[in-house]
Amino acid sequence: MVSFMVHAGSAVRRIVRSERIEGIIAFFSFPSGPAAWWAHRKTGVPYVVSLRGGDVPGAEPGLALVHRFLSPFRRQILRSARAVVANSPGLMDMSEKADPVAVHMIPNGVDTAFFVPAAPPRPKNPQPRLLFVGRFQAQKNLLWLLEQLAEIRRAAGLSFVLDLVGDGPLRPALSTRVHELQLTDVVQFQGWKDRAELRAYYQAADLVINPSLYEGMPNVVLEAMACGRPVLASRVPGNDSAVVDRVTGWLFPLDDAAGFSDCVRTLLTRPDIGDELGISARARAEREYPWARTAQSYLELLASPSPHSQIA
Fold it and tell me: Which pTM was predicted?
């Protein structure tokens, strides 16, 4: 991140002037915020900070000391912005408790023209297919997921396949755990996929699972919803903003392994329920999260006549 800040700071003024940039959106207060702040100081171009999760104190365990050290710099960046945005109500509340700066809420958007349901009739999988998409890191809770699926397979005798699309630092540990739990015939490591391939995985999935320990607002959940697939997600801020429980998907408490198992068993044995959830999920994605709506919200903030109000 330090390397990014150094290189971005040296290039941002040139980019703003050569490309005639009229507004900047800095995704993450760090490391992107300092580049936007520097460009604003030198060129006057307004910027918006879009908080994403880990850049908010309290969102990611283990970063408390880093956030404490960065606090004065972060607050300067937030106060100088035309507006500060969070992508979920939970993240907005967390930021306002940590820093005395008001935060707007603009949810993430999804390309509902690209991420679409499979053309009917949707092919039936010989075995139910579960899907996880994301970076293999502790936040995503994948070791827990493997353990729960192993227990479901043992206790209920259900047959299914789990596609893990992505990669990351936990890849070796996950591979080892798959062997230990005797899931080598169940779990398929697919690596990263381009957009078209990823869409095909969503469309083919019977159930998309996001068991994260914490989130901002996961794009994966929105993309799965746009593809008309049911999502089973942990009941944490971010997930609970996107998924309407028992309407567009199901939510489960992280401390309720039995509840998670019940959800998986029900959704695997009752595909009609999953199809109904998927229809509702697609409708919600089109209504609440289209990119045009998200983009317009950012444009309105950048065009606002004065910086956002500050909390006393």
Answer: 0.89
